[in-house]
Amino acid sequence: MTARLRRPSASASHPRHSQTRQARRGLPPSPHLAELAVIDPWWNPPWPIPWQRAYHHAHTHPQHPTTRHWLDRQRRAWPLLHPHQQQLLTGIGITTPT
Fold it and tell me: Which of 20, 31, 56, 92 has the least CB density, counted as fewest CB within 10 Å?
């Protein structure tokens, strides 16, 4: 009987995953990842990528109905958001619910 070999998935070799593995081992990020952070500090945020995409859509299409609903949900969830998420939303005029 032969053992079945698993091929690593494409996402396992993604630089973002390698950075996560390095961080867990206590290793410093590679120089190109540090350079990316200088260009765009939010290229690898601590929150889910779908949130980042929705934020970008809200920033670029503020009057779209989907955006308005998403922003309402963010206002209601404000205390649960990462402080930098709150900062990003404040930058586009969204603040805590009153």
Answer: 31
Whether 59 maps to a domain, the answer reads: yes
| Integer CA distances (angstroms), 71 to 1, 17, 43, 97, in order | 56, 29, 21, 11
Enter the pTM of the model. Answer: 0.62
Gap between the Cα atoms of 49 and 69, Å rounded: 18
Q: How many domains does one find in the chain?
A: 1
9 assigned to some structural domain = no
* Sign of the CA dihedral running 16, 56, 90, 77: negative
Alpha helices in 1-98 (DSSP H): 15-24, 31-39, 49-60, 65-76, 83-91
- The helix-helix angle for 83-91 and 65-76 (nearest 10°) equals 140
